[in-house]
Amino acid sequence: MKKILPILIILMVSLSAKAQKLAPPHFRGGDKAFHEFLDQNLKWPKDSAVKQGIVKVSFYVESNGLLSDIKLVQGFAHEFDKEALRVINLSPRWVPATRDGKFIKSKYSVPILYESIEL
């Protein structure tokens, strides 16, 4: 047992040294640009009495930056859910995730907050 422990420690250290460097996908221009994109494109459904809610959407960012398999994960009202999906489908290409410097397909999810602001 005394000989196995140092070998295991050396093995664990060498494996962690070979760990892959991952970077998540992101909207071109960053979070601020994504929020601006949502602000410009999301429309409040007409005649809705809803004051606020969150829609969560998931999708894959392909290695070429296109979005695929866009799905509703959590909704709160049909017309808001539909609008969130419509806008995510309008999204321009994203910067894909990378692993060791190479673009890869990855799953991403985003919450979209609807909040009525009374002026």
From TrEMBL:
It comes from the Bacteria. GO terms for molecular function: energy transducer activity. Residues 51-115 form the TonB C-terminal domain. The keyword Signal applies. Keywords: Signal. Residues 1-19 form the signal peptide. One of its GO terms (biological process) is transmembrane transport. Pfam families: TonB_C (PF03544). GO terms for cellular component: plasma membrane protein complex. The keyword Zinc does not apply. InterPro entries: TonB-dependent_transducer, TonB_C. This is Energy transducer TonB. It comes from Mucilaginibacter rubeus.
